[in-house]
Structure to design on (582 residues):
């Protein structure tokens, strides 16, 4: 029995040793423009094939699966493979990692393969293959309307893909999208891609508009537009023909880039710049229109300020009206009706203010002024609205209210004067007053010193005991100091450095009072250990230590008033929690 068991183990080992799963490549060194074929081959029908991560490569075909089985002289052979065609995306030594299959509950993996990718190589042409290269027949161009604009002057970038009549395009994808740092940008939707004809490099080409963007530079100087790069699948004709005489084509691939572009942005001139200029650039018309100028008591009016025209309508603010105190003005409702074609923004923006009068009378809203930079003339222009007169026909009057208040004050009787005729003081004297000697008051005053003597003695002994308790006094002093510095931190909440100094002292004195330690013993680990030994919540302990460390850093780091207030509130909560827990 033992012999059969050993023989069975050897047979199983032999079966396991026969399983083969390996990766085979067409070459281990190739140029950046060459393709690589890789086959994952197994001699068993494995399941759950998992392809490796082809990092540094792009899959251009695959996976394609092939299975072959044969019987020769009674022997069976089986082979199953998964094939890929890869194109390298970078130079250097790249590694194709392991592929995985499963067979009879066992996991099998291929060995990693290293591929050396060199610079693009010049490949010999087959005389029967294409004589046309995509290099001289495919271009990606970024057309820019203006490379020397003013700040907030619109410029347009149109990305066109030019290709000659000798080649065809089957597919493309973006490798890197352009970035428009320091520009306000908006993409123009392209509903349908249509091939058009045009001249390029003195020759007639076909082209497709891939992308349209309108840009408004937001600062002066040299601004960089990062390039758009694309991966294009092309169809190249060959010298071969099919049985019907038609030219055969072969598939190719080309990577193109529009290149980085530099825009020299001019600053707006300082000479003649109005004080109320808010950055409007273009050609505009400004209006201030009230919904009504005559109102009854309880009515309101809408004052609409609007700017219409062509320019950077979304990138500036409208002027704010100044109204008399008797008119209550609410926050505006902002409305935008702006289109953004390739020529730049055009349309209308407006702010609508609701104004409610409080008193009867006539009121004046002073003229409003709107300034913009005119690109056509290169000068600043200011548009002023007319003076607006508001008449409130009825309702309370400011002067009448003042008179009624004064009249009411004049006729009012002062409470002291109202009861002046009543004498509130008396000089009555008791007729039969008992003598002081022998009275209750006499004996009380006589015995009071003897009664107070024991109390004075007890108070003195208590004070001596308290004075002799150095340890307890130190705890009380630390408690007082913690409260004092916490109060000082609250007073200094608008002064960053004094606030964090006081907050740090408050937290240190709190620890001295509760843990009975000195400053030299205040290490982070020691504080955590002592607080946890007193049944403090671990999360609260971590918050306390983190806040203590933050006090030193926050003294020199920039912080807002909201951050300082948050730290103070957090300190109060943490100290309160620890007070309850320990």
């Amino acid at each position: 029995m033992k012999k059969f068991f050993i023989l069975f183990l050897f047979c199983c080992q032999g079966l396991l040793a026969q399983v083969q799963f390996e990766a085979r490549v067409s070459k281990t060194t190739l140029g950046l423009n060459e393709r690589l074929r890789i086959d994952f081959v197994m001699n068993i029908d494995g399941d759950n094939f998992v392809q490796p991560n082809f990092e540094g490569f792009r899959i251009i075909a695959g996976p394609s699966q092939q299975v072959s089985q044969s019987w020769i002289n009674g022997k069976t052979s089986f082979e199953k493979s998964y094939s890929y065609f890869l194109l390298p995306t970078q130079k250097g030594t790249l590694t194709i990692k392991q592929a995985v299959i499963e067979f009879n509950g066992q996991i099998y993996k291929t060995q990693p393969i290293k591929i050396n990718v060199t610079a693009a190589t010049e490949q010999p042409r087959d005389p029967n293959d294409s004589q046309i290269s995509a290099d001289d027949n495919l271009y990606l161009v970024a057309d820019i309307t203006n490379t020397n604009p003013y700040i907030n002057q619109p410029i347009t970038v149109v990305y066109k893909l030019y290709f000659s009549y000798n080649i065809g395009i089957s597919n493309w994808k973006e490798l890197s999208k352009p970035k428009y740092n320091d520009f306000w940008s908006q993409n123009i939707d392209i509903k349908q891609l249509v091939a058009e004809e045009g001249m390029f490099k003195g020759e007639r080409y076909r082209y497709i508009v891939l992308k349209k963007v309108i840009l408004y530079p937001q600062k002066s100087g040299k601004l960089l537009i990062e390039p758009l790069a694309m991966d294009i699948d092309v169809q190249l004709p060959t010298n071969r023909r099919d049985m019907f005489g038609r030219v055969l084509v072969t598939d190719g691939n080309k990577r193109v880039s529009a290149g980085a572009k530099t825009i020299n942005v001019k600053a707006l001139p300082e000479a003649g710049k109005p004080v109320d200029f808010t950055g409007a650039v273009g050609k505009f018309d400004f209006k201030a229109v009230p919904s009504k100028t005559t109102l009854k008591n309880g009515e309101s009016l809408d004052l609409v300020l609007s700017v219409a025209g062509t320019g950077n309508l979304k990138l500036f603010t409208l002027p704010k009206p100044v109204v008399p105190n008797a008119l209550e003005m609410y926050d505006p409702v902002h409305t935008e009706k702006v289109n953004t074609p390739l020529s730049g923004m055009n349309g209308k923006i407006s702010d609508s203010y609701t104004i409610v009068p409080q008193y009867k009378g006539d009121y004046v809203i002073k003229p409003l002024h709107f300034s913009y930079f005119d690109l056509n003339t290169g000068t600043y222009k200011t548009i002023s609205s007319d003076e607006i007169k508001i008449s409130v026909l009825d309702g309370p009057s400011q002067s009448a209210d003042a008179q009624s208040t004064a009249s009411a004050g004049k006729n009012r009787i002062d409470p002291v004067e109202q009861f002046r005729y009543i004498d509130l003081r008396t000089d009555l004297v008791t007729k039969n007053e008992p003598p002081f000697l022998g009275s209750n008051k006499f004996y009380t005053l006589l015995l009071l010193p003897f009664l107070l003597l024991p109390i004075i003695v007890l108070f003195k002994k208590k004070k001596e005991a308290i004075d002799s308790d150095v340890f307890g006094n130190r705890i009380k002093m630390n408690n007082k100091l913690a409260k004092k510095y916490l109060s000082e931190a609250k007073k200094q909440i608008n002064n960053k450095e004094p606030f964090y100094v006081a907050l740090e002292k408050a937290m240190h004195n709190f620890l001295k009072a509760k843990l009975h330690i000195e400053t030299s013993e205040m290490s982070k680990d020691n504080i955590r250990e002592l607080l946890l030994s007193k049944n403090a919540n671990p999360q609260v302990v971590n918050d306390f230590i983190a806040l203590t460390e933050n006090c030193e850093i926050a003294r020199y780091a920039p912080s807002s008033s909201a951050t300082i207030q948050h730290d103070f509130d957090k300190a109060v909560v943490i100290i309160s929690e620890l007070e309850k827990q320990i």
